[in-house]
Amino acid sequence: MLKRTVPLIIASIVGIVLILAKFSPPIQSWETEVVMWFDILAVFAFVLGAGNLNLNNLKKISERKAGWGYAAITLLAFWITLICGIGKLGVPPNEQYLGYAWSGSFEAEGSAFWWIFNYVYVPLASTMFATLAFYISSAAFRAFRANNVEASLLLLTALVVLVSQTSSGPMLSDLIPEESTWAIFKIDTIRGVLVNLFNTLGTRAVMIGIALGVVSTSLKVLMGVDQSYLGGD
Predict the structure, then answer these.
(1) For residues 88 and 104, is the Cβ–Cβ distance under 8 A?
(2) Structure pTM?
(3) CB-count burial class (<10 Å; 0-12, 13-18, 19+) for 34
(4) Residue 129 and residue 116: Cα distance in Å, rounded?
(5) What b/e string do you get for 83-107 counting C-beta neighbours within 10 Å, with b at 16 or more?
(6) What is the distance, to the nearest Å, from the Cα of residue 116 to the centroid of all Cα atoms in its chain?
(7) pLDDT of 116-152, one tens digit each?
């Protein structure tokens, strides 16, 4: 019982302090202190996360479970990156402290960590996002089937926005004189209305919904109703 009660009390106190610090100038410095505590706890969380990563992947490798080869690659990449970052391999010394080998930043150009980030991580991330384009195209194809009025409007809106981004879109709009009453049907004008008006309205509605959800979840945590962050059932 005590193992759950104490974390609940700490979470409630910290949440209330952060809320009061936003509206009370005399205690705004408390927010800085709480954030500092969070950074300290985050360090321990990173260590626990790294240990959990190693244990789970080592267990998968030892038991030869499906995908154990990927687990081995994950561990190898983790330890190589960690050693290169902590050991500052290949890092040139800082210009102000040339006599100290580890005075430079671990992200300095030419270091091993810099090389891994730019020539391993960035290409892999670009490949992943390029692959996602095919999944997005497939999902868009299924969503844009004009089976009902909503889908038809979505398809028409998407076509207008896509065509306006191509070179043929402005060319089609040039056929309509600027001073005519039909100028409102120029594709650039329609796109501006869709993006600046309807898209903005939809985005604001979504953001308001997210804000209400955050407030609701925060109140549940502060009052101890939501205890999912403590783990268990």
Answers:
(1) yes
(2) 0.60
(3) middle
(4) 19
(5) ebbeebeebeeeeeeeeeeeebebe
(6) 21
(7) 999 999 999 999 988 887 887 777 777 666 677 777 7
